[in-house]
């Protein structure tokens, strides 16, 4: 609505302008909270979370389990659905795998608000690129664009990491962090539950897996992570990204699997 327009004007700016340093300033001029606000080109009515004048009521600890890997059928991505804040389960049914267009999805890890905002910005820029040039930006280009948009926020309270997966021009997988780090690989797992997920992925991921086998490996990896990691849990989402586009598997509750595992451990 109109009364809120002045607080959202910055969303209409080009994300490549976010946090760009004015050449007329020196690095020493951006050390105070007030100068950081102008440095990031945000409205003065929106206080920065890193400002020492606004202490947090409790540590904003959070965690998640997201993963993706490449196999002969395309790219498979999976994630849990628990959004946590310290000891509080803020949302048991969040969406951590976000479609960007028909052949591109991203998995998010970090502060939920940051991840949602930057997903919307990236989707907007990719759509504008397609309208201007009549073709889609490659996955490599999308990951590079996202990395450049996040890099100016290195060292701030921004907490977001994403995996960009696509099968539009062949399966590809990138990891992009909020400090601008960009890595290409075949297997990635991000979040507090990732060490447990890697234990399953390292022994189960192979190139010649069928779709059913790959889904089983991803599902098992998320389940093992949620069983050991308190910040991950509830349900599991699985997406398959192939040359025909992305498809989503029906969301499953992990409570039944956890109950079966507990009974099995008791019997042994």
UniProtKB/TrEMBL annotation:
Location of the protein in the cell: Cytoplasm; Nucleus
Pfam families: Proteasome (PF00227)
Catalytic activity from the UniProt record: Cleavage of peptide bonds with very broad specificity
First-listed, main subcellular location of the protein, grouped into a coarse class: cytoplasm
Alphabetized Gene3D superfamilies for the sequence: Glutamine Phosphoribosylpyrophosphate, subunit 1, domain 1
Record PROSITE patterns: PROTEASOME_BETA_1 (PS00854), PROTEASOME_BETA_2 (PS51476)
Keywords attached to this entry: Cytoplasm, Hydrolase, Nucleus, Protease, Proteasome, Threonine protease
A GO cellular component entry from the record: nucleus
Catalytic residues, chain numbering: 64
UniProt-listed InterPro entries: Ntn_hydrolases_N (IPR029055), Pept_T1A_subB (IPR000243), Proteasome_bsu_CS (IPR016050), Proteasome_sua/b (IPR001353), Proteasome_suB-type (IPR023333)
MF GO annotations: threonine-type endopeptidase activity
Top-level division of the source organism's lineage: Eukaryota
Biological process annotations from GO: proteolysis involved in protein catabolic process
Quaternary structure and partners: Component of the proteasome complex.
Annotated function: The proteasome is a multicatalytic proteinase complex which is characterized by its ability to cleave peptides with Arg, Phe, Tyr, Leu, and Glu adjacent to the leaving group at neutral or slightly basic pH. The proteasome has an ATP-dependent proteolytic activity. This subunit is involved in antigen processing to generate class I binding peptides.
Family of this protein: Belongs to the peptidase T1B family.
Protein name in UniProt: Proteasome subunit beta
């Amino acid at each position: 609505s109109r009364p809120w327009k002045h607080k959202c004007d910055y969303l209409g700016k080009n994300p490549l302008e976010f946090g760009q340093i004015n050449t007329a300033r020196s690095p020493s001029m951006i050390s105070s909270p007030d100068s950081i606000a102008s440095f990031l080109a945000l409205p003065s009515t929106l206080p920065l979370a890193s400002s020492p004048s606004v202490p947090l009521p409790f540590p904003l600890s959070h965690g998640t389990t997201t993963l993706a890997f490449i196999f002969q059928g395309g790219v498979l991505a999976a994630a849990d659905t628990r959004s946590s804040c310290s000891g509080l389960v803020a949302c048991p049914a969040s969406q951590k795998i976000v479609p960007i267009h028909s052949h591109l999805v991203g998995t998010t890890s970090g502060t939920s608000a940051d991840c949602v905002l930057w997903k919307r910005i990236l989707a907007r820029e990719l759509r504008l690129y397609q309208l201007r040039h009549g073709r889609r930006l490659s996955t490599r280009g999308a990951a590079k664009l996202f990395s450049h948009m996040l890099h100016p926020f290195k060292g701030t309270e921004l907490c977001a990491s994403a995996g960009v997966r696509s099968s539009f021009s062949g399966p590809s997988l990138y990891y992009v962090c909020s400090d601008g780090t960009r890595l290409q690989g075949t297997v990635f797992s991000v979040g507090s539950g990732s060490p447990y997920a890697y234990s399953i992925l390292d022994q189960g991921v192979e190139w010649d897996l069928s779709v059913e086998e790959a889904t089983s490996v991803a599902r098992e990896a998320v389940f093992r992570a949620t069983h050991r990691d308190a910040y991950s849990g509830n349900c599991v989402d699985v997406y398959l990204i192939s040359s025909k586009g992305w498809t989503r598997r029906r969301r499953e509750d992990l409570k039944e699997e956890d109950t079966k595992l507990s009974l099995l451990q008791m019997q042994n």
